[in-house]
């Protein structure tokens, strides 16, 4: 057993727990959230956000369908613009879930595109292997 004194003496009973939220967006993000739920990641709340109702029904976390009017419950077809419009259609649903969170982590795929630079919300960088 370690007999050293703690570096800082503090009262742990006064600590508040942070509300940490992981939001999975689209097929890739929702699959990541489902994996985290299955692996029993503790101390985190999970939310899955998708236009695809059938895909959402396979998720074990809280679910939010977005863009129901736009997509009629189908996917966004790997089109980032459809995803953006769907999110704007139901922005209040999304805001109500993240409200009060201390930290929000968003996990998402890149809309089916193999090159991240094609995604409008990603940084404009390119990776090139050394010759």
Automatic annotation (TrEMBL):
It comes from the Bacteria. GO terms for molecular function: GTP binding; GTPase activity. Residues 19-121 form the Tubulin/FtsZ GTPase domain. Keywords: Cell cycle, Cell division, GTP-binding, Nucleotide-binding. GO terms for cellular component: cell division site; cytoplasm. Residues 109-131 are annotated as: Disordered. One of its GO terms (biological process) is cell division. PANTHER family: CELL DIVISION PROTEIN FTSZ-RELATED, MITOCHONDRIAL DIVISION PROTEIN FSZA. This is Cell division protein (FtsZ). It comes from Leptospirillum ferriphilum (strain ML-04).
């Amino acid at each position: 057993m370690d007999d050293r004194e703690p570096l800082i003496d503090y009262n742990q009973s006064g600590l508040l727990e942070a509300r940490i939220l992981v939001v999975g967006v689209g097929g890739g993000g929702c699959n990541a959230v489902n994996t985290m739920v299955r692996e029993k990641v503790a101390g985190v709340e999970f939310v899955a956000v998708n236009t695809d109702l059938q895909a959402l029904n396979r998720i074990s976390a809280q679910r939010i369908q977005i863009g129901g009017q736009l997509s009629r419950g189908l996917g966004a077809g790997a089109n980032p613009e459809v995803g953006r419009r769907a999110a704007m259609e139901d922005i209040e649903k999304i805001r109500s879930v993240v409200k009060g969170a201390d930290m929000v982590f968003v996990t998402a795929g890149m809309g089916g595109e193999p090159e991240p630079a094609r995604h409008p919300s990603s940084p404009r960088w390119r990776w090139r292997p050394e010759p």
